[in-house]
Amino acid sequence: MKTLTATKKLVVLFMASIFVLSCSNDDDGPAPFVPTDSIVAIAQQTNDLSILVSALIKYPDLVNTLSGDGTFTVFAPNNDAFTALLGAIGQTSIDDVPEDVLRNVLEYHVYATSALTSNLVAPGSIAMVNGESATITSNANGVFIDSAQIIAVDAIATNGVVHIIDSVLVPPSILPIVGTIVAPAYFNKNFTTLIAAVLNADTDVLSVLLGNGPSGNGLTLFAPTNAAFEAAGITNVNGQDAVLTYHVVDGTVTQSMLPTSGIAAAEVATLGGNIYVTNAGGPVSINGTTTVTATDITGSNGVVHVIDNVLIPPTQNIVEIVSDFASGDPAEFTMLAAALTRAGLLSTFEGTGPFTVFAPTDAAFMAAGFPDVASIQAATPEALTPILTHHVVQPNAHIFSTDLTDDLAAPMLNGQNVVVDLDNLTLQDAGGNSPAGLIPSLLNVHATNGVVHVIDKVLLPQ
After folding, report:
1. Strand (E) positions, 160-218?
2. Which helix (H) or strand (E) holds 43?
3. Are 143 and 55 spatial neighbours (Cβ–Cβ below 8 Å)?
4. What is the three-class DSSP state of 402?
5. pLDDT at residue 33, as a whole number
6. Cys bridge to 51: 82, 244, 319, 364, which one at CB 3.0-4.6 A?
7. How far apart are CA 392 and CA 439, in angstroms?
8. Residue 97 belongs to what H/E stretch?
9. How many angstroms separate the CA atoms of 430 and 461, rounded?
């Protein structure tokens, strides 16, 4: 709330004028009305302002200011006004609204320069406490501030005056958001990290989300919750443009319009790259790691689906991922990297693909009879190639863990099948050897040209 030194002086003058009138009228009639309640007390005593009071008491400093000295004019929305606003922004309670957003809205209802009684309210622009201006107009139907009609006037307080209005005033800076696909997140505490990322993007992502998309057919937003950002370890929300656009589809795609998937995930283009949707009758998931938890939240420019994980666009191909692991500390996939090199397959798996690769660990290669990298390098390409191609699904496809089904016989590049045991999370190779286990923490490693799942044994062909 702003410093009110100037308005305090006005109060002194106002009270002095009342005192003069009171003295001069002693012999002429009854004394002028002298208010005894503050603006806050008047609101608390008015049943139809109970939601406003519930919002106001969230901010003790505002309560103290509007209970103390001053010459305020408060345009107070009634309960119906707040109920209508909550419907417009897709919330059920003011408790859902982020505190900084709610405070901004409340301060837009307070004029601190003087107490404008009804005889002083005139068409024009007035500066509200939040720093933005509201416009007063009048016509044959009544007097309005912005689009809200003043329906009850002149509740005179010790520190100003209250007028009741039939709509909540939304500050001009956030009015364009109301009703759009941004609103369900902007006005909900569970999505403050997403909104912070949008507002702190290097480019104007907010304008993109308020538009109708490149095609003019609206947008589809997959909205991660605060918990999703926390789980992804994203604490710095500045400059997350690539991540944000990876959540936005050009066009309005409702749940019923999502493509169905079979053995492989269905590819869907976003403004930041392709995502891969598993939609086979159960929960809809994306990129194998993300579940859609709420669908078809409609807005004026599209639709929102809530997700429980942040979608991270891939930046490395399969070979680069394997090489990074091989050069790490501790190193992993050194055997696989050596085998791909020896078999002459590096260029293949650097290609566009897509490939679904079941990648054996170094320990898996050792258990299969390759004690070290030197033993891999001593093997012939003709011996290694059938083994390596028995770890890659054919045809080229993105197959995430959510696409796997029990007893699925997946054809591999070497022409032989690998059978999935989903209950035990294992793969049976064509050679009939003991099953290889899928490592849960290393499933769905997304590459620019496919997906990698880590396994604990080498799959051997017949």
Report:
1. 160-165
2. helix 39-44
3. no
4. helix
5. 72
6. 82
7. 17
8. none
9. 5
How crowded is residue 156: how many other Cβ atoms within 10 Å of its Cβ? 16
The answer regarding whether domain 5-175 maps to CATH 2.30.180.10 reads yes
In contact, 198 and 230? CB cutoff 8 Å? no
pLDDT at 27: 53
Question: Is the domain 318-455 a CATH 2.60.40.10 member?
Answer: no
State both tokens at 376: 């891999």
Using the structure block, give the residue that is written with the tokens 């933005």.
Answer: 132
- Tokens representing 297 are 């939240």
Q: State the Cα–Cα distance between residues 358 and 451, nearest whole angstrom.
A: 9
> Do the domains 179-307 and 5-175 match in fold?
yes
Tokens in use for 247? 């959540």
Q: Give first-to-last CA distance, the chain, whole Å.
A: 77
- Separation of alpha carbons 400 and 395, rounded Å: 14
CB 53 within 8 A of CB 140: no
The beta strands (E) that lie in 96-213 are given as 110-111, 124-127, 133-139, 142-145, 148-157, 160-165
Residue type present at position 354: P
| Predicted pLDDT at 29 | 63
Provide φ and ψ at 338, rounded to 5°.
-65, -40
Q: pTM for the complete prediction?
A: 0.88
At the top level of CATH, the class of 179-307 is mainly beta
**Quick count: other Cβ atoms within 10 Å of Cβ 62?**
19
Sorted by where each begins, the domain ranges of the chain are: 5-175, 179-307, 318-455
Residue type, 418: V
Indicate the SS3 state at residue 211. coil
> Got the DSSP string for 412-426?
BTTS-EEEEETTTTE
Closest by Cα among 307, 309, 334, 304 to 322 = 334
Q: If residue 128 lies in a helix (H) or strand (E), which one and from where to where?
A: none
Q: In which residue ranges of the chain is pLDDT below 70?
A: 1-29, 31
Could you give the CA distance from residue 176 to residue 450 in angstroms, rounded to a whole number? 39
